[in-house]
């Protein structure tokens, strides 16, 4: 392997970082929206809990969609 070639793990690390970023973004948005919803219902804890659940679902879906769009992990 020459010095200008990237190691094979670099692409895997980028995919993992993008997946974690999508999940973190989903959770952050879910907590923010859930807190607002909880304040409207006078039950902040319930709103944040629902927001986290929705944020994880949205983040995981976005992450899976991005992985599916990138194609298989095995080189051709």
What does the largest sheet look like?
none
What share of the residues does DSSP label as strand, in percent? under 5%
Rg, rounded, reads 18 Å
Helical amount among residues, as a percent range?
Answer: over 70%
Number of DSSP strand runs? 0
Query: What's the total helix number?
Result: 2
- Would you tell me the structural class of the helices and strands? mainly alpha
Summarize the structure.
The chain is an all-alpha fold. The chain is built from two helices and no strands.
Polypeptide structure, described:
This protein is mostly helical and 76 residues long. The protein has a domain of 48 residues. The chain contains two helices and no strands. It starts with 8 loop residues before the first helix and ends in a 6-residue tail after the last helix.
Structural key phrases:
76 residues, mainly alpha
Give a topology summary.
Blueprint: H1 9-40, H2 44-70
